[in-house]
Amino acid sequence: MIPAQIFNQINDKCTEGLALALASNDDGAVMEIQWSNKAFTTITGYTASEALGKRGTILIGPDMGQGVHLFIIEKLMKWENFSTKSRNNRKNGEVYWQRMSWVHLSDPETGNRWWLCSIVELEEEQADAARHAINGPALSDQEGYEKALEQVQRLEKENTRLLQLAKSVAKDANEDALTGLSNRRHFEIELKTWIENLKKHGTEFAVIYIDLDRFKFVNDTLGHEAGDRLLVSVADMLRDLTGESDLVARLGGDEFVILRPLAQSALNISSLADEIVGTMQAPFACDGKSTACSASVGVAIANKYMEHAEQVVADADEALYHAKSQGKGRWSFFTEEMHAKSIATKKLASDLLLACERCEFVPYFQPLIDAQTGRIACAEMLVRWAHPTQGILAPAAFLDTAANMGILKQIDEIIFASVHGALSRFDEAGVDLPRVAVNVSAARLADPTFIHDIKSSGISPQRLTIEILESVYLDRMGDVVRWTIDELDELGVTIALDDFGTGHASVSGLLKIRPSILKIDRNFIQPIVEEASTRPLVASIVGIGKSLGMRVVAEGVETEEHARLVSEMGCDYLQGFYFGKPMCEDDLRNRLLESGGQFWSPEQSIIKSSVVRGIAGAG
Among 136-145, 427-436, 587-596, whose mean pLDDT is lowest? Predict the structure, then answer.
């Protein structure tokens, strides 16, 4: 990698005017300047900030010969490296002579294509030679002159075709091919203009962000052709609801956005959002089939008091997310509360990245007790964040954000290493902890590298249980997930289905995943002490698990009576606050050392219960 100091010297000391332009993959003549050096400013008159984002056409002055101009376009379109000498104009119109060279570059990682343009201002003698070559050479060089003239004439004949082609390229560069609306590229260019007008003239505007709620369902049930028709219908609807002063764009997929001048009030903005949501409530018909596809809308206002007007699109997206979280098929204005939440989320994301670097995630353990012996059989590992200022944070405070950031893999690696270390220390201390159970998210289960991470963790597969949420396997039972589960089983890792009963599982669903352990959700266990009518349901779930050869865990065991009842129903393992809340490694080790691993005496519980019933009967 080139040191920054060296790169800065290139920028400051190089006498050639240099500019880097990001080109369209479809046409090398369509580009935007992304960087230029100081010599570029000296020669052309354009500062780096003025050139940034501008098309390559700013390098073509009015005094450049038409033949040279067309020659440059042709070479760029063909992605050919070339060099040319000609007149040109600085930004202020001053004429000068230059040698302009173009070199084609490509980025193997992103696939992006670039041009490096080099401009050298010619000295007087060099300019005279170039001028002489254009105006006509001596008779001794007549043959070369005629060839040059023939080339210029040929290029001039193609002038009309190239101009039409340029118009077509410009249209394609700005227009979404499916809907004919502005595309993301054009929207971003226009947004910059709207923001500049806001800052200079106080021209306030609204961003209306639209997302279709059930577009994937339409694609999956009616086919992609129907999905395309729906997008075209939505585009037509947005055209009908907007005016000439509005900009309507499709950003990609099923996302659309509207820029609308604010005018005198926000009423016309809210009315438009109402109309969009209301119109999208109507069923969508395709080839005689009908389906519903509502839309959620987020609205944000860019006003002259904003410190960072560029944030307005992100604000509208935040309002859209809020609308979806409230039930979809509705719209929401961006509020200060959302702004505060957005800032907090960004701060949380930043802290999470630091937490990964500093390995601040630690395992907490909750015992699972053998219902027959009362001894510890396993400990469920629950991740906690040892935040440097806020203390120990539960997963609810950060896990969703971590999943959205795509850093669950890093957190898993930290936790697996911690668990491996904890098991080693338990073994060295003579503490008997037979197994640990780890919850796995949907994203990690669908990650092909998950099996490699398990193998490289150092944890013996025979001491590891992977807990999968019922909703996860129902929603994500694709080929990768099926392969992951099979691989875990092959390794000797035990599979447990967590929170059974909270989703939509069926016996056929259980047969698909074939877990060794079935964990009954605590919401079914909690009421069985006070409400005898709820016990048959728990007994039925236990019966399902047993009939399929599974061991059954009762979650949410908070009293001795809970423990006794679920044990009598046939549960194999018990988990809940009665045996201990999630605890750190040191607390679990001390508890195991003090108790010898014995957390409960089933026999004494039965005797005690019999005595209580006997006293009650005698009374």
Answer: 136-145
